[in-house]
Structure formats: structure tokens, C-alpha cells
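Message: I would value a second opinion on how I read folds in C-alpha cell form. Give me a protein, with the fold worked out from its sequence. Write it directly below this note and I will take it from there.
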Amino acid sequence: MTDSASATPNIARAEGLVDRALAASPRYPHAHIVKGHVLRARNRWAEAIHAYEAALALDHNLVYALSGRALCKLYLGLIDEVTPLVEQAIRLSPRDPLIGHFYNQIGTVHLLQSHTDEAIPWLEKARNVMPGIAVHHSRLASAYALKSETERAAAELAEARRLALDGRFSSIARLMAFSGPWWGAPKTRALFEATYFAGLRKAGMPEE
């Protein structure tokens, strides 16, 4: 996640390159996945879903098309459609090097649905297999805090802050500003506010 203006030229260059690749090889499924990633980076989630679906139409076993599609569904507020896609990705690639992100996606869905008891095991699995990812610790900090496990929440928040060198977890305001539109459509943003941010506040994250 980034709101850095410096990323914009790189995204534009990537889009130009992938469009050339698709023009040359329209039936190359991985080019459609990259197109989906580029559109997702531009927060054009509905268009990104179409790109991922184009890839899956060519090869229905493409794990990163499934997980990318799931993320876009989350951003659009179609939260009930997320977990089945991620579960399919896990079944297809149970030893995937990025499987911690898949676990985090499912845990995040449970967190946003206020199913905290279900969220915690998934978020713990995400942290355990990918301990160097700051956001995994932050989601777990929120879930622990919502369960009033304050010491564990504080420890996870401290680790998220240590890992995120950009300081995004220093305050609610900075985290919101850093991630910008990545919180998704209004429905998704409201869910994050009611759960994730509420938990972070309980874990000790200040407003400013």
C-alpha cells in the first residue's frame, strides 16, 4: 500500500508495458494478471476484477488471479465473496510463498465482520508464516485489543511499528493518510473504521 506520488510514473510505465504485451499475446493469462495488478494499484477495482477474470478464463488455476480478485471484492465492499476465492487459492497452492497474505485476507474478512474469535487464528497464522510483514501484526493487534487482550495487542502493535519504517502505524491519522483510497469503497471504509481502527485505538494507537 502506498500513496506516494513517486509511484505514479512507475505504474503508468507498467501499464504501458502490459498493454503492449496483451496486444501481442492476448491469450497470455499472466499478462492479464499483471494488468489486474496495475488497475488495482490505480484503485480501479471493478476493472481489475475483469482483468483477473480474463486470466482465469484462460487458466482457472491461477492463484494470484484468485487472490487479486478477492482483494478487489474486499475493496468494493463485496465482503461475502472474498473468503471462497482465497480458500480456493489456498487449496491450489498450500505451500505458496505468499500464503501468509492469503491467511491475512481471510482473517481480515472475519475482523471486518466482527467475528473476532474466527479472525485471530487466521491472523496468527499470517503472522507466523510471514513475521516480517507489518500489516499482519497490526491486524492481529486490533483483533487482540477487541478481545481485551491488551498486552498481546500492545506487543503486536509495537512490532508493526518496528517493521514499518515509514511510520504509518504511529497514529490513526497517519495510517489513514498513508493508505488513502486503499481502504476501499464507503462500505468497506466503514467496516474498517468500526473494527480495525477501533481495535488499534484500544491497542494504544493515538489519533494524531
